[in-house]
Amino acid sequence: MISFIKSLYLGRRLFYILFGISILFLLSYWIEFLYSPTWITASFILVLLFFDMIALYRNNGIEADRMLPEKFSNSDENNVEINISNKYGFRVYTEVIDEIPVQFQKRDFLKKIVLQAHDQIVFDYKLKPLHRGEYVFGNLNLYASTFLKLAKRRYVFNKDQMVKVYPSFIQMKKLDFLALDQKISLHGIKRIRRIGHTMEFEQIKEYVRGDDVRTINWKATAKHGNLMVNQFQDERSQPVYSLIDCGRMMKMPFEGLSLLDYAINSTLAFSNIALKKKDKVGMMSFSNKVDNLQKASSKLNQLSRILEALYNVDTGFYDSDFSLLYSRVRKHISHRSLLMLYTNFEHMSGLKRQLPFLTALSKQHLLVVIFFENTEMTRLTKIDPENVSESAHQTIAEQFSNNKLLMAKELHRHGIQTLLTPPEDLSINAINKYLEIKSRGLL
């Protein structure tokens, strides 16, 4: 009985009718002949409501299911599918209310669907998470009514479903093609001019116009009677590490996503490309301590291990200890490696405090310092100020933007590779930097 009461709702149409009947009863105080027809109307409505409830509760006429993917991709649109089946022998008007995880702060989800007799429908909607972690869906509520719409029956399905939000594997898959040697020309992807070649031999082939004459193989030329050249390929199985700064400076938000999450998404996409280029990939996250360390490897399950490690990376709002980073790198990474350091500096003084440790790292490894443009400051530099206040804001913004460029030049002056990038272009620019280093044989 309690479950029946909890599932029964009265329709808005019934309340409109009851309001009209109450008005007629009020008018019948002065107009007496309205009294009897009003009672007849009220009785008729009660009979209709009774039959409406019998039709809805005669059997369990609605089945529904929320189909979630195994995991969500952070900062991407993720599909959630709803499958609804009508077991009634008549048309049903339904209202679907899905209790979306609290992280989205969305309480206006409502989908109205008309289901024909014994019909089935599947629809989907998209969710874009901006934080990693566990997301719990509440009830999938479905309110069914007949064409009378006097009563509604509530059905509840899929209570407390949980899905984990991982770093952006959708973005990783989109950038898969960059692992190919013959890259097509797309917006945001620059061509890398190959300077020289590496010394890992691939094959001997016939000379074609444009080949480096210094690679001519004279013995093979004499044997075949045609010019033959040695062809080289990028060196493989080189250790590549992503070093992720989890300090408080990486908590800054841009477009709803923190710099740390941009770095994590980029690390996953970059690691995937490096593995496809046959390099060994590892990662390390640090702030006031080293939280995660994955040794470089080219095993098949390495990308899954990195994905799980990145899922748990978070910031504790501490100041980052670069001296600790240097000591851990020196202890755990013995071979010369490519270090992609994701961090952020807002002031030259902050960079100079860490510069001795960065310089020490660059002497033992090929270090690439990746930090971020402040896109809001860049936007302010491009507006036309309309008053003194806006002009002052623009001056400060230009100073901040110039400081970023000065920091990049300071790093270059100490022989450190640098990448200054907007947060939204981080993944593609980091991969381009890696491909440039591979093509120039710098590692």
From TrEMBL:
So which residues are the signal peptide here? none
Instruction: Give all residue intervals belonging to the DUF58 domain.
Output: 204-369
Xref: Pfam families: DUF58
Residue ranges crossing the lipid bilayer per the database entry = 14-31, 37-57
List the InterPro entries: DUF58
Q: Which UniProt keywords apply?
A: Membrane, Transmembrane, Transmembrane helix
Could you tell me what this protein is called? Answer: DUF58 domain-containing protein
Per the UniProt entry, what species is this protein from, by scientific name?
Christiangramia lutea
Upper taxonomic lineage: Bacteria, Pseudomonadati, Bacteroidota, Flavobacteriia, Flavobacteriales
